[in-house]
Protein: 4-hydroxy-tetrahydrodipicolinate reductase
Amino acid sequence: MIRTIVCGASGKMGRRICALVGEDKDLTLVGAVEAKGSSAIGQDAGVLATGVANGIAVKDDLAKVIEEGEVVIDFTAPDATLHHVRIASDHKKPIVIGTTGLHKDQIKEIEKLSVIIPIVLAPNMSLGVNILFKLVEEVARTLKDDYDIEIVEMHHRFKADAPSGTALKLAEFAAKGIGEDLENIAIYGRKGLVGQRNSKEIGIMSLRGGDVVGDHTVIFAGLGERVELTHKASSRDTFARGALRAAKWVVDKVPGLYSMQDVLGLK
Ligand SMILES: NC(=O)C1=CN([C@@H]2O[C@H](COP(=O)(O)OP(=O)(O)OC[C@H]3O[C@@H](n4cnc5c(N)ncnc54)[C@H](OP(=O)(O)O)[C@@H]3O)[C@@H](O)[C@H]2O)C=CC1
Ligand SMILES: O=C(O)C1=N[C@H](C(=O)O)C[C@H](O)C1
Structure:
């Protein structure tokens, strides 16, 4: 059994990950971590996740449990994730990161630390979205100049970051397909007298509301027709299952920065 630690254990994702680790024949939960001052500290992680105790009390610092684990799964928030990756690298433990909203410098630091430990960093751990990444690149490459690319994502009202990490990754794949650097062509929302659309730009729009788990659509709009590729997640378990798969995959890998494409063999 692979001894697994979950950071963000009382969050929306963390609870589902703890629940599914509890049902998994290859993984066992040995640590659950939450933010200092959280009301979850000291509570039983099983009770939080499923209502049934598993004897794992939630701790307020990964450093307190890291030596008990073989792999860490982190779905928290950007600063917390960085703190956790540093601890994981100090203790030479592989880590799976699902957190989105990381800024450039944080990603650079994660890249640096991946020389020491294996890290899976993926904004979306569902199989469907990872297949969509490939499709989007392929369709963008095929349609190229005559079709305008727009991305629309919708998430629940509680989501902290925008655009979603998935929408950004979809935009990266689309940009790659048309041979452009996303940084030069991304447009995040539009307002006012913005003028005619530049043929190369990729528009990225974020909607928030209710309890939407995660919807992403990539639109290729031409004159006379449009192609729309959509993924809709209806349960967080699709991401949680992907995180478990990544944890099993990364545990015996050499140091490096890996994606879900690596985990799923889609490269
Ligand atoms: N890659 C993927 O497939 C997916 C990625 N995500 C991403 O995962 C992240 C979490 O999402 P979600 O579960 O919905 O968010 P939640 O806010 O429900 O959960 C995050 C949890 O992390 C906790 N946390 C914050 N700081 C720390 C810390 N320093 N140490 C330990 N725990 C901490 C939060 O505690 P508190 O509330 O007290 O701050 C909270 O319980 C987001 O970035 C989201 O975009 C989400 C779904 C799928
Ligand atoms: O915050 C969420 O909920 C989600 N976040 C990820 C993202 O930002 O892409 C993945 C998923 O869409 C759910």
Observations:
- The radius of gyration is 19 Å.
- The longest helix spans residues 127-143.
